[in-house]
Specification:
Helix content: 10-25%
Region (Disordered): 26-50
Strand content: 35-45%
CATH superfamily of the largest domain: Copper binding periplasmic protein CusF
Structural class: alpha+beta
CATH architecture of the largest domain: Beta Barrel
CATH topology of the largest domain: OB fold (Dihydrolipoamide Acetyltransferase, E2P)
Pfam families: CusF_Ec (PF11604)
Order of helices and strands: HEEEHEE
CATH class of the largest domain: Mainly Beta
Strand order of the largest sheet: 1-2-3-5-4
Largest sheet: 5 strands, mixed, barrel
Radius of gyration: 27 Å
Shape: globular
Number of strands: 5
InterPro entries: CusF_Ec, CusF_sf
Biased composition (Low complexity): 26-42
Protein name: Copper-binding protein
Number of helices: 2
Length: 118
């Protein structure tokens, strides 16, 4: 019986060594994420609050006077933003207070989420 137990234990240890080496290789998988949507390729998201000054449904933009957006180091100002979905514009009104998320892409700032501020 002791011989069988010894064989089982030695086989288990060998298997554990193999798994340990294989698991160790998985630690190197962190390098794989660099080409698969890692956070470095995701745009930074800024959060703003402001007042709608105007809407341009043809251009797909909204002009907002907003406070500072610390994520981008922006001071408060009035600026036009593109919107990710033109449907956002249908629910906005001039003079409405809003809060929004914005990213910066190659064409400038783009609002990805906007809603009436409580």
């Amino acid at each position: 019986m002791a011989g069988v137990l010894g064989m089982v234990l030695s086989g288990t240890l060998a298997l554990a060594d193999d798994m340990g080496g294989g698991m160790g290789d998985m630690n190197g998988m962190s390098n794989m994420s660099s080409g698969m949507g890692s956070s470095s390729s995701s745009p930074a998201v800024g959060h703003g609050k402001g007042v709608v000054k105007s809407l341009d449904t043809k251009a797909g933009t909204v002009t907002i006077t907003h406070g500072p957006i610390k994520e981008f180091g922006w001071k408060g100002m009035t600026m036009a933003f593109s919107v990710k979905h033109r449907s956002f514009l249908s629910s906005l009104k001039k003079g409405e207070q809003v809060q929004f998320d914005v990213i910066q892409d190659n064409n400038g700032p783009v609002i990805t989420k906007i809603e009436e501020r409580p």
